[in-house]
Design goal:
- This protein is about 20% helix and about 35% strand.
- With about 300 residues, the chain is α+β, with helices and mostly antiparallel strands.
- It has 2 domains: about 110 residues, 2,3-Dihydroxybiphenyl 1,2-Dioxygenase, domain 1 (Roll); about 150 residues, 2,3-Dihydroxybiphenyl 1,2-Dioxygenase, domain 1 (Roll).
- The longest helix has 13 residues.
- It binds fe (ii) ion.
- Fe (ii) ion (FE2) binds next to β9 and β13.
């Protein structure tokens, strides 16, 4: 059975206050104290980003959920049958994640996943401290993550064959350019919702453990205001405003306190998977997205 959505992400940090300021003043999420760290709210759920107090800056895990217990049980059995090491989490840990049950595993490139089921809502309205109108979440999940995948083909097969993802798009990225550059592969994969991709895999190493994560807002004004807030807070802008060719997302990228980038965008297409043919994109963008890897 297929994964329904990206429910949450877990990030470790030595600097909780940097994350609080970034979440509230730049991202526009609500930061709530939680066991020395933070829960970041972006909708009706108790949290979508869990910021844990740790020793270093590191992306810890992505929380992917199945739609229900039957799908979870079938899905986890399939992983075990394939020889994937599964570590069940305790009831207390599940409560902390606001799911009913979850297990831990890693994909073939070593990215940590928490696979669970169950949706807890607490009835508190989301109120953005920065005036963000809303984040586009719901059944589409909180956004997407792009993982480093040194074992690109094997890792793609793990998501497709074992977690029920489907191909949306693939491309090669040419960092050096010129005839001798073989390029680096990327796969964009969807799960059981209309978001263009929920997990993407990139064939390059990333020290922070994540290439980027994406959050989506309803329109250009929310993106433009976020860009203004990021500049006012002296956040490194990793990529200028631009429009991707594959998901049509208009977005910019900025550095987070975790060292990885956060893409902040609007207007991503929502394909009908029953009539969708996967694409092979020959370039990354229709316009914009000029990268600045420094900072
Ligand atoms: Fe993205």
């Amino acid at each position: 059975m297929a994964i329904r959505s990206l429910a949450y992400v877990v990030v470790d940090t030595a600097d909780v206050e940097a994350w609080r300021a970034y979440a509230e003043q730049v991202l526009g999420m609500q930061a709530i104290d939680h066991e020395g760290g933070l829960r970041l709210r972006m909708d009706e759920r108790p949290f979508r980003m869990l910021i844990r107090k740790g020793d270093a800056e590191q992306f810890h895990a992505a929380g992917l959920v199945y739609p229900d217990k039957a799908a979870f049980d079938t899905g986890i059995a399939r992983l075990r049958d394939a020889g994937v090491a599964i570590e069940p989490a305790s009831e207390d840990e599940a409560k902390d994640r606001h799911v009913v049950e979850f297990v831990r595993c890693t994909d073939p490139s070593g990215n940590r996943l928490e696979l669970g089921w169950g949706r807890v809502v607490d009835g508190n309205p989301f109120v953005s401290p920065a005036g963000v109108s809303e984040f586009i979440t719901g059944e589409m999940g909180m956004g997407h993550v792009v993982f480093p995948a040194a074992k690109l083909a094997e890792t793609r097969a793990f998501y497709i064959d074992l977690l029920g993802f489907g191909d949306t798009d693939e491309m090669r990225v040419y960092m050096q350019g010129g005839p001798d550059d073989p390029g680096l592969g990327m796969h964009f994969l969807h799960c059981d919702n209309v978001r263009h991709h929920t997990v993407a895999l990139a064939e390059f190493p990333v020290p922070s453990g994540l290439v980027h994560m994406m959050v989506e807002v309803p329109g250009l004004d929310d993106v433009g205001r976020a860009l203004d807030r990021a500049k006012a807070a002296n956040v490194h802008i990793s990529s200028s405003l631009g429009k991707h060719m594959n998901d049509k997302m208009v977005s910019f990228y900025m550095r987070s306190p975790g060292g990885f980038d956060i893409e902040y965008g609007f207007g991503g297409i929502q394909p009908d998977w029953t009539s969708f043919t996967p694409t092979i994109s020959l370039k990354e963008d229709e316009w914009g997205h000029q990268w600045d890897f420094g900072g």
